[in-house]
Amino acid sequence: MRQKRFFLTESEIPNRWYNITADMQNKPQQMLSPATGKPITEDELAELFSRECSRQELNTTDRWIEIPDEVREKYTYYRSTPLVRAYGLEEALGTPAHIYFKNESVSPVGSHKLNSALAQAYYCKKEGVTNITTETGAGQWGTALAYASKVFGLESAVYQVKISYEQKPYRRSIMQVFGALVTPSPSMSTRAGKDILTKSPNYQGSLGTAISEAVELARMTPGCKYALGSVMSHVTLHQTVIGLEAEKQMEMAGEYPDIVIACFGGGSNFGGLCFPFLRHNLSGKRQTRFIAAEPAACPKLTEGRFEYDYGDEAGYTPLLPMFTLGHDFRPANIHAGGLRYHGAGVIASQLLKDGLIEATDIAQTEAFKAGCLFAEAEGIIPAPESCHAIAACIAEAIKCKEKGEQKTILFCLSGHGLIDMTAYDQFLSGNMTDFKKQ
Length: 438
Ligand SMILES: *Cc1c(COP(=O)(O)O)cnc(C)c1O
Prior knowledge:
By secondary structure, this protein is α/β, with parallel strands linked by helices. Helices cover 41% and strands 17% of the residues. It contains 17 helices and 15 strands. The strands form 4 sheets. A 7-stranded mixed sheet has the order 1-4-5-15-10-11-14, with helices on both faces. A 4-stranded parallel sheet has the order 8-7-6-9, with helices on both faces. A hairpin with an 8-residue loop joins strand 12 (305-310) and strand 13. Helix 3 packs antiparallel against helix 5 (114-126) and helix 9 packs antiparallel against helix 10 (207-220). The N and C termini lie far apart (51 Å). The model has no long low-confidence stretch (mean pLDDT 96).
């Protein structure tokens, strides 16, 4: 019988994360302090983030970073995640391509976000921090951080983008089950929130605004650190456990990917899956293509500019050298909340600038069409974010069919969509609209 799913044993789960910046010829440009305009220091970052994450953020020399035993032990609750050969999807498309996906939706919170949440909560606990605060878009990051905080005995406070808070009430409930204090953003509880609400009382929120609020709370509260679920290099570092596992699993399957695809919000599941494979391109051994799939409504990689910009709306975060639509860009209310972010992580930005990765933009209805086809063929309802990766994968698989090429494609199923059924309802009833960048 043909093998569909590939797993690693507990001892094969990676014990180190991969730091791609050690292997990059052109390192990302340095982040600048918003206060001084000079390159940011570890101490400045550590005012906001845990000390260890601040150190990791600026580390461009150590190729491998050890995964703490305590974190790795929690990883074994759900890792390795399966690598799956998508025979069903291949047959539905009639493509000669071999399609694989790495299924991160099997984590306890339903997405890849837990890989970094566990690491960040662990470092906070170890450093004597008592409270963590963060923002969440669709709710996946907030859910992951709420759970990870519970695991390591910390209090968590989450600012959830208002549109998601209203569209996805169950995510709020899940965070609350894990003991998090959840506030819809923009809120009147911070100066950043008040400023925005005064100007636009009906503003439905964005990740940029929610970040401003969480950062402000962290700065104002003793014993409280801030944690970010995407964009930052240390977050992507933690996510490389995805690609390192996938590399071993592809080997078990006897294949190596020609194309690796992931959806792109700030770049953590993309970098997490791609960077371990990209290291073989950087060393000249492979010529794999890497495709970031972003929403047409928020196309920072395909239409943004490469420049220094803030990570948040109010300008509290460091200035990041990245592809950005501008920190005041207000993305349309698409369902893929996790992709509604104006900028791209600095590593992926540099790699795109250097032509080492590619990007494509996907319209919302195209994403959901792909998601429904995948669900029928593979029996898993994908997260709206992941639907963008699936759409990009299908486009490549169809090209293979047209050209009669048998390529191997690997994509990241970053999460499941079981709490996003209102979005699927809207799609199925024909009431879903597409947005272009305005
Ligand atoms: C948050 C999220 C994303 C986008 O974030 P990245 O950092 O770009 O990976 C994608 N998919 C899911 C399921 C998410 O929760």
